[in-house]
Design goal:
2 domains, 15% strand, alpha/beta, Rossmann fold
């Protein structure tokens, strides 16, 4: 498959294609990018600005990966949200994973493609992650997976609004969810394609291993300490993948990540989704944009590797202080009380940048790329210096008592957290400025 690139708008297309919205996806965008590239599935990376100027007219499907739905909405603005609504209304199809799914709901700042609400944080399990069984309704996106499936009546009996023909065969129906939202679906026209089943023992709720917490009473005790819902039983029978229509277009929203690394079931579903929503697997477009920028020196490779090394040192500090460990090749599991996802994101994105620059020809490195590397260096070094200090302070605070990512009585910790992340859970402070620059650099390299 040819490299995906930003679009150059044309009046007509010879074949339907897929637009992949990159903005505000970060690690989730990269995870999806790798999964799709690994399967040879066609797509073009586009930005919110492209959508605002009519890029969707050239496509049959819009794919929006994970990330903070609210930030995606802000990047799109009213004109971008309107453009997506018109695209789907006129027959375009929409696929959203996790944050990309939340963006399509009736939530404030959302697109409103489906009459779906997101469950309030106080009512949901906000920190579940890992493998979980799904109970599936028959649909073409499960083709090849349901061959040995059996009919299951239990789910229909317990949840009357869900279809009683959901299958519950355990061997093939394991997928991954990574800190998902939860949907409230009260519109009978919306189909539940999959509902949550049992969490596997290697999953986590917050920083608690599901298999190690054996009884319901134990979950209740821990919920009183953590002051959030933890028991994954609360997820059972809730919709995980749904489908509806908006105008002439199809909309599929998934709270599970079929793009998880090394997930064979997920890869199979991705192939089926492209077949169902985009009409096939083999319609990759060549949209290369010639660059007239001045070519620069090989110092870019050295500087990018240097920045990746700085990020690696930060991850190593967290590992040796028992603040996190790796769940898979891309995602960490961190202790409650630290901002693991943000550090995880920096490391994975800088690793990708370093690898890509190492394999990039000298003439492929433009002045724009050089400038991004310089800007990233200016932002990354002070961030990491402060982050190391913060992590050690948080590690000591965890020994003394209960803290969360947002609550701690130590004034020095509060000050550093405000500088690095602001009070926003959906990225802010020095981190947001830094990750935006890294994201800009990565997008240039991917395209």
């Amino acid at each position: 498959m040819q490299e995906s690139t930003p679009v150059t708008h044309t009046s007509q297309r010879s074949a339907p294609g897929v637009a992949f919205l990159w903005d505000e996806s970060f690690i989730w965008g990269l995870m999806a990018y790798r999964a799709l590239k690994g399967l040879g599935l066609p797509f073009d990376l586009i930005k919110a600005e492209d959508i605002k100027t009519g890029a969707l007219n050239e496509y049959k499907m819009l794919f929006v990966p994970g990330g903070w739905a609210s930030n995606k909405g802000k990047a799109l603005g009213d004109s971008g949200l309107k453009a997506i609504r018109e695209f789907v209304e006129n027959g375009g199809n929409y696929l959203g994973f996790c944050g990309g799914a939340g963006l399509a709901t009736e939530a404030k700042g959302g697109i409103g493609l489906l009459n779906v609400r997101r469950r309030p944080t106080r009512e949901r399990v906000p920190s579940f992650s890992g493998r979980i069984r799904l109970n599936l309704n028959e649909h073409s996106i499960w083709n090849g997976i349901l061959e040995s499936g059996v009919k299951g009546q239990e789910l229909g009996e317990k949840k009357g609004e869900l279809n009683s023909s959901l299958t519950t065969h355990p061997s093939n129906l394991i997928f991954h969810a990574w800190w998902p939202s939860q949907f409230i679906v009260e519109d009978n026209s919306i189909k539940t394609l999959a509902a949550y089943g049992d969490a596997l023992t290697d999953a986590f709720s917050s920083d608690l291993n599901v298999g190690d917490v054996e009884s319901g009473s134990r979950w209740e005790e821990l919920e009183a300490v953590y002051q959030i819902n933890l028991n994954p039983e609360r997820l059972k029978y809730e919709p995980a993948v749904i489908e509806g229509t908006y105008g002439k277009g199809k909309v599929i929203l998934s709270l599970v990540h079929f793009d998880t690394p090394d997930d064979a079931n997920g890869q199979h579903v991705l192939l089926n989704l492209w077949e169902y929503l985009a009409g096939g697997h083999n319609s990759a477009q060549d949209r290369r944009r010639a660059s007239t920028k001045e070519k620069t020196s090989d110092l870019s490779r050295f500087h990018a590797f240097e920045l990746f090394t700085i990020c690696s040192e930060l991850i190593s500090l967290g590992e040796r202080n028992f603040l996190w460990f790796w769940r898979n090749s891309m995602l960490l599991q961190w202790r409650r009380g630290v901002r693991g996802l943000e550090y995880n994101t920096l490391y994975i994105m800088m690793k990708e940048i370093s690898v890509r620059l190492d394999h990039q020809s000298r003439k492929g490195i433009t002045q724009d790329i050089d400038n991004c590397i310089d800007n990233t260096k200016v932002l990354l070094e002070p961030f990491v210096e402060k982050a190391k200090n913060l992590l050690l302070l948080e590690r000591y605070a965890l020994q003394k008592g209960h803290i969360t990512y947002e609550r701690c009585d130590d004034p020095e910790i509060q000050k550093l957290r405000g500088e690095l992340f602001s009070e926003s859970k959906s990225h802010g402070g020095m981190f947001k400025e830094l990750v935006n620059e890294i994201d800009k650099l990565l997008f240039l390299l991917l395209t």
